[in-house]
Amino acid sequence: MNKVSVKAENGSYDILIENGLLSRLSDYMQAYSGRRALVVTDDNVAPLYLDTVLRQLSQVGVGVFYSVIPAGETSKSVETLTSLFPELTRAGVRRGDLIVALGGGVVGDLAGFLASIWLRGVDFIQIPTTLLSQVDSSVGGKTAVDIPEGKNLVGSFYQPKAVFIDTAVLRTLPLREISAGMAEIIKYGCIFDAQLFEYLEKIGSPDALTDNFERIIARSCEIKADYVLRDPYDRGERMELNLGHTLGHAVETVMGFGVLLHGEAVAIGISAAARWSERILSLSAEDAKRIDALLTAFGLDISLPECDKGALLSAMCLDKKAETGGIRFVLLERIGKARVVRLEPEEMLEAAYER
Ligand SMILES: NC(=O)c1ccc[n+]([C@@H]2O[C@H](COP(=O)([O-])OP(=O)(O)OC[C@H]3O[C@@H](n4cnc5c(N)ncnc54)[C@H](O)[C@@H]3O)[C@@H](O)[C@H]2O)c1
Ligand SMILES: [Zn+2]
Predict the structure, then answer these.
(1) 124 SS3 class
(2) What is the DSSP letter of 1?
(3) How many angstroms does the Cα of residue 69 sit away from the middle of ligand 1?
(4) 3-class SS letters over 196-233
């Protein structure tokens, strides 16, 4: 069992990480005995893990109710959100009761936002089931839904009471989703932790991950939690977590949402950032190569897909609201040390194309 304590000014909580944790959930839920819980999950995760969670909660006397939403980003919507209001009324969820998110980042972001506004806030528990949600979206207290005008435009900062990570659930996660999650883990190594980076190099391939998941997930949560602690409302220092994201988001947008997974687009962005860091900062050519090699080893394609350069450029500017004198990009001084640099987006794009 690994435990990561997150101490944010807007709420402190523990992240527990263990192989097989779901079937021991009752050990950690006794405090909720006599309360009601609405478990929100999606229709991929429900047949796999919902029964176990409901059984574990019932065992300690939690009154359980559940809602299953369709899997996929389109469910992170105002419509799905409001469809859950009558479910909460039906379940009789009051102050002191709780909402549990069982699923990936979509379920986590949606259920977290719901918990933050229902009765002006009820307790929220996260059980993230994708690698991305285990190392990224379940840490940091950001919740949101998408609107037609853009992703994550309606949301709140709301910390969970606890996060339960069972690494065994990753066995059913498609390999493509594992790779996408690895992009964010490799990002943590690049910006903050050369040791983690080296450790990932030793693991070397997705096949060898299983025995190492607990350790690398715990370290990733620690790193993200550390950034969150320094900058709970995302006003500046968290910026380093955006390595690969400005170009990544632009690629995601221009390709059309759903073509590339978020992590796949971020991998392209990280590789471009490494190339640019080599040119204008002190990152060595060897380190830039190691970054590309590590991304590739975990199944990530780092080449920029064919897409309209102009569209990519405007998406990049839009993403960061095009400040004058360029956009702030996260680059690397070396593996393990990030630096924020103001750059013209055109130059950054060139680096992405010159390979
Ligand atoms: N709040 C934050 O700080 C933050 C950070 C990063 C990303 N996000 C958000 O997270 C979302 C993406 O999250 P995601 O990548 O987890 O996507 P997701 O929630 O859509 O899950 C990906 C797919 O995997 C399936 N799945 C989940 N767990 C499974 C399991 N154990 N076995 C088999 N299938 C499983 C899901 O049903 C879905 O089809 C985006 O909406 C993004 O904006 C939020
Ligand atoms: Zn990301």
Answers:
(1) strand
(2) -
(3) 13
(4) HHHHHHHHCCHHHCHHHHHHHHHHHHHHHHHHHHHCCC
Q: Which of 110, 130, 172 to mutate to test the pocket of ligand 1 (most atoms within 8 A of CB)?
A: 130
Q: What stretch(es) of the chain map to CATH 3.40.50.1970?
A: 2-172
Ligand 1 atom with least separation from CA of 181: 15
**Which residue is it, tokens 């073509």?**
259
Pair of tokens at residue 345: 């987006």
Residue 248's pLDDT is 94
Please tell me if the CB atom of residue 44 comes closer than 6 angstroms to any atom of ligand 1: yes
Pocket test for ligand 1, best of 106, 113, 245 (most atoms within 8 A of CB): 106
Pocket test for ligand 1, best of 109, 127, 131 (most atoms within 8 A of CB): 109
pLDDT, tens digit (0-9, with 9 covering 90-100), for 89-108? 999 999 999 999 999 999 99
CB-CB contact of 101 with 116 (8 Å) = no
| 42/76 Cα distance (integer angstroms) | 11
Reported pTM: 0.96
Cβ of 168 below 6 Å from ligand 1: no
CA-based Rg of the chain, rounded to a whole angstrom? 20
Domain spanning 175-353, CATH class = mainly alpha
CATH for 2-172 is 3.40.50.1970
Q: Where in the chain is the domain with CATH 1.20.1090.10?
A: 175-353
pLDDT digits (tens, 9 = 90+) for 108-166: 999 999 999 999 999 999 999 999 999 999 998 999 999 988 889 999 999 999 999 99
179 CB less than 6 Å from ligand 1?
A: no
| pLDDT at position 347 | 80
